[in-house]
Amino acid sequence: MTNRNIDKRQIYLDVAKLHYHTLKTGFLPTLGINFLALMYQCIDEANFSILITKYKNSKLIGFVSGSLGSSGLYKLMLNHPLTLIITLAPVIFNFRKIKKIINIFKHISSKERKKYPKPELLSICVHPDHQGKGIGIELYHKLSQYFKSLSKSEFIIVVGQSLQANSFYKNQGAEIIGELKVHPDVKSNIFIQRL
Known about the structure:
Structural class: alpha+beta
Strand content: 25-35%
CATH class: Alpha Beta
Distance between the termini: 22 Å
Number of domains: 1
Number of helices: 8
CATH superfamily: Gcn5-related N-acetyltransferase (GNAT)
Helix content: 40-55%
Low-confidence stretches: none
Shape: globular
Radius of gyration: 16 Å
């Protein structure tokens, strides 16, 4: 994380809110802002992942997160059992959401996922008021530098085929190397970014 003068809890909440409001088509926002805040806290605290944020005048304008392997990330969330239970309580009786959570765990440990490199861009987001100003590119390059600093030569990005983000990744030089279904009703492209 790059913002030392802002309280970490506030950063996680800011990131969660930006994710929630701008990446609405994904499944994770349906789990709520508190779940997202816990997830980004775990991303930031883990020694195998990173959360990079960009603020302007104390307002979050963008972030990117990446991991050297996302399976451990969800296990880290179990280190916060009370917070996890409270954040998931509203969905515990929603069969569809529970099924999608199970699908995510299946995807992470599947043979299909293991065919690809472990380093992964998990999420990238720029506030709508600041899009088209190069902030997404800047964040993407910072994540690339993080992976390079750890002697990684490539990372993957999993993105829904219907999303505009596909063109962003292509413009950054990433190539589609496959497709998969994390959830039965949504096809995703798998991009690889070589460094």
